[in-house]
Structures are given as C-alpha cells and as structure tokens.
Design a protein that fits this description.
heterodimer, A: alpha/beta, Rossmann fold, 2 domains, four-stranded antiparallel β-sheet, 10 strands, B: about 425 residues, alpha+beta, Elongation Factor Tu (Ef-tu), domain 3, about 35% strand
Chain lengths: ~300, ~425
Amino acid sequence: MLQRDYTTSQLDVLEAEAIHIMREVAAEFERPCLLFSGGKDSIVMLRVAEKAFWPAPIPFPLMHVDTGHNFPEVIEFRDRRVAELGARLVVASVQASIDAGRVVEQTGRRASRNRLQTTTLLDAIEEHGFDAVFGGARRDEEKARAKERVFSFRDEFGQWDPKNQRPELWNLYNTKISRGEHIRVFPLSNWTELDVWHYIRREGIEIPSIYFSHSRTVFERDAMLLADSTVVQRGDDEPTFEAVVRYRTVGDMTCTGAVASTATTIDQIIDEIAATRITERGATRADDRASEAAMEDRKKEGYF
Amino acid sequence: MDILRFATAGSVDDGKSTLIGRLLFDSKAIFEDQLEAVERTSRDRGTEYTDLSLLTDGLRAEREQGITIDVAYRYFATPKRKFIIADTPGHIQYTRNMVTGASTADLAIILIDARKGVLEQSRRHAFLTTLLRVPHLVLAVNKMDLVDYSEARFDEIREEFTAFASKLNASDLTFIPISALHGDNVVSRSENMPWYEGSSLLHHLEHVHIASDRNLVDVRFPVQYVIRPHSATSQELHDYRGYAGQVAGGVLKPGDEVLHLPSGLTTTIAAIDTFDGPVEEAFAPMSVTLRLADDIDISRGDMICRPNNQPHVAQEIDAMVSWMADGVKLQPRSKLIIKHTTRTARALVRDLHYRLDVNTLHRDESATALGLNEIGRVSLRTTQPLFVDDYARNRLTGGFILIDEATNGTVGAGMIVDAH
C-alpha cells in the first residue's frame, strides 16, 4: 500500500489541465496565437503559457484587439508585460477597421465599439492565418459559455454553432480543421473568478492598477459607474462625481463599470469577491445587459 | 482544497435541476443577478414557482423549447472542496452526453423518484456510469417527502438497485434518501428521517476519497511535446531537451529506470522539471517535463513507462464504442482517425461483434452497424501501434476518440477491453 496521500490542490489541477491544453495546441496547430488584453484572465493565461514551455520561450505570438477605448493603465501594463517576456504582440485595431470602412462606428450616447471588435478579430485571424486562438473565457462567467467546449470549432465565417459542437471526452481534444476554419481554445474553462484571484495571489503576478481601489471621476448610468473620459458621451443629466472604486473586469471604457470598493490588496479583493452576491459580468458589463441571450448572439458571430 | 468532478443523471422530472439549484444556492454559487433573471423569465412565462432549471439551460433554443441540449458545466465550492458538475440532459441524445460527462467524472449521482422506484432509465444511467468506470456512484432517492419519508420504501429501492448493480460490477455505491425541494439530507441531515444514519449528500461529496482512484501503480507518460529552447546565449539551454506531458499513471521519480516506446530502449530519469523548479516526484494529473540521462530519439506520441511494467503495444484493439454521429454510421470497413493519448493514427473497423441495448443489456449479435447513441463491441486495426491499457485499469491510456476523416467531427468514443 502507498503511504502517501496523492491529493492535488485545486489550483494545481487547474494549472496542469491548462498546461496540457496549451501544449496540445502548440503540438498540433501550425499558427496559434494567444489573445492578451491585459485583463486578469489573459494575464493568468499568459503565466500558464510561460510555464507550459519553460525554459523555452512561448512558441506563439500574442494578439490584442484594441478598440482605442481601453484604459490607458491597461495598455501601459500590456506593453510592459510583453517587453518583459520578449514576446511578439500583434495589435488588431478597431480604429483601423473603421478607417478602412470594414465597420461603421455607432453614434449617440451609448455608442460602443464592443460589437465592432468581432470584425476586427476575424479579419486579423484571417490576415495572419491563425488556426488556433487562445481566449481567457471561463464557463462560470455566463450561461452560453457554460456549454462551450475547451476546443471550440469555428467555421470559415468564424461562427460558433452551439447546437453542433464536438463531444469532448477525457483529456482528448479533436484538433482537426479544414483550411480557413479555426479553433478557439479556452484553457481556463474550468476556472472560476475566485480561482483566478487565488492563482494571482499564489503566483504573485502583477495586475493593472485599476483592479485595486482608487479615486476616480465617474458618472452613473444604468446603475453602473462609468469613468468620465473623452471616449464616452455623457449627457447633461449625468453629473460626474468623485468615487472610491475599482474594476472587477477590464474591457472598454464605454461599457465597463467600476464597483465601489476600498480593496487595495489581493487579499482584500478575494474577501470582497467571496462575499459578493452579484456576478462579475452582471456587476460591470453593459454589453451583457442588452438581452437574455446577448452573449450567445455575439459568440455565434465570432466574438471572443 | 482539491477538486471533485461529478456528473448528474436524471430528468427534470426526477428533480435534478432542483437538486443542482439547491446545491448551487446553498453554497452561494448562484448570484442575485442570476436569480433575478430566472425569476423574471419564470414570471414572463407564467410559471408559478421560480424555475431553477433556467439556471442551467443556457442557450436560447433550450429556453424556448424548455429542453436541455448539451452538457453544461457548473461550479461551486465549499471550504472543503471545489466541485465541477457535468450536468447532462435527460432526453435528447442522452447517451452521447452522459458518456461525455462521465468520462472525466470522479463520481456520478443518479436520481430516482421515490414514488416511481428503479426505472428503465435508472438502469441505463447506472450501466453508462459503470461502462465509463466512474469510481463512485450515489443513488439519490429523491422526493422522499412524497412517500412520507418512509424507510421501508427507501429499503425497497435500495435492495432492488443493489441486485441490479451486482450484475454491472458497479464500484463504490452509496444510497441517500433526499428531498431536493425541501432540502432534506442535501446539505444537512434531515430531521424528517431519523432512521437514516448516513451522511447528507453534500457531506458525502465533500468527504468521498478520490486521490487513490487515479492509477498510481503503472507508470505511463505519453510524450506530448518536446521542449528544445535552442538558446544561442546560454550554453546550458542550448543543449536542453525536455519531454513535456501530463502523467497518465504511476509515480515517476528522478533516478528511476524507464523504458521508451516504441524503441524499447531504457534510460533513467535525470530530472523532473517545472517552471517552479525541479520536483521529486510526478503523478497524475501533473503536467511536467522529463529530462533523461541518455540521448534517445523521442517525439510526440511516444510513451515512457517502466521496463517491468509496460502497456500493450497494439495494432489490433477490441473496444466498447459509443457512437456519437448523427448521419454516418459505424460499420465494418469504416475508416476513421483514432486519437489515443498523444498519438493519432488511422483505424479500420474490422468487426462489429454486437450492439448492446443499454436498457436491457441484451447483446444483439445480428447488428450490422452502430447509429447515433448506440454502443457496441468493435474490433479495430490501426496503421501505427498504440501503447494501450485496458480501460478498466487506466481511463487515460484505455480511452480514445474516433474522428470522421471527411467532416473532422468527433464521431465516437472507445473504451479498450482487449488489445494485442
């Protein structure tokens, strides 16, 4: 009989699974890339990639779909992290898509480039010939995502067909595709928001400053606190005020809300999330509030 | 804190969604905005109660039709454990989804309605669970409130199911009388059933021992990826050659003598590397990188094992195959792609021995093909040797998937029963 207890902690199991997924992609695809936005999930994904191929460098480029409406703190962080790793970063610009006439900018107070990102992303995948694209999405985020595969097949239009997904068994992933198709790969599928934060704490990973409590000029819209900035059209009936806030997710300034918080350390953030009664997307993302199936519809079109 | 992955089997009528809803709700994994959305939808549809199944039915078509299409994964945690639920639907494409959900499960919960007792579908669920070698099985006898919390009724169901399970070679079997609706024996022990001396369902899920379910005896390391930094600046890294993979069985230690397949050459483990430093041992499910003492030509798809404990090197494989394709059928002469551990080859179906009726366990030897959701015993011949174990001995080196060469779809899942 074995004397030792071979129990593995949940973070070790999740990390080992994510490493296995990344190596599988590197071994079986010709041109993978990793979507890196500077948000916490993609930061964790990048750390896992570092671990999966160490001591060799990460064998694929990173890609950021830049709406031009990102938080400056996050862009600064993104560039610093890329430089530290010596990685190659591809920036796909929504502004360039607008300038080229590929998409038309929305107008009005609620204009957002959120939906335009899909075209920019799909154009970049085609231009660079990427056949596998790592995303940091988690199944606990949203109910359409709860049914998505780890290796999620996309046809030549980049579309997701939720009713016709490939069964996924054991740790065996089907990587077969035809020319022009690609696979979205989600190594963090089985992680929860709290797992991500516990991992960030354990690994001592740096994250952008806006995740921590700070003072910011904000205004209220749809019961969310939006940052006052040049990219958001604010009405006269939407007065600004100073608030002590932090960001729970990092997306566009036009649709990502801040939450009132005094958490200035990872430990305090973990305590705050453990006690919260609202999901991260419910608390902070106007893009998901459009309808019951807002995420499902965008995903079918080829969204992240 | 470790992870328990479990699958739930049963239909909405058995109270499966109510049970999952209760586990999520009581462990605070359901949030207010999710609950509000469900309450709103329930109201819009004129449902009198808050329909917790709406929490798990994520896709528009599912909500519109009131059915569950696909396996949904749910997450919750208690201070003891993190839980991953593979929630499989009760009706459409049941077998395919349950096989998928059970493939990674440490435990399966089969729900039985105490009024109806052991039905044909309960037997089907139990059979699939044992076919997939899920190590722990829980029979949750639900709706005990509707049979006056009767001990006699519970005993009756237990005896009937135990008799059936003995034919299946079922693993660790636990019976728990519950009422998902009222919460009896779900999170805490019920006062309504003082005759029941076992633990509540959640207590059982928190404490069932799973670490030794993994194969810790037969060393199996499928080589997934070769790490060669080719560094021009560091002499040490210039010559670095590591074999990366996820341990599929046994315990590996530096200094161990190992054997490489297909070459049959032996060497020793020089070091087990990770980003966080070298480790003294590696076991499933760790992802590590091995360095070996001798220079052997090793590539993806190869296997590292022990000289005195090797997998079968086989091109002729007998397996139970669960067919998952809608249009095309599996039949003798079918040519498919087979993916087993990190090795991919082509396979020819040589024979279909029988098709199994998953409700009666009857073997139909006159069957000439397997269609969607059918299971049968199949002989395959592969273009390259595979390094396999019986599925009963190791799920990771005994399982494989089949891929259609024309559509690239995953069309089957196999569990090896014999190889040579």
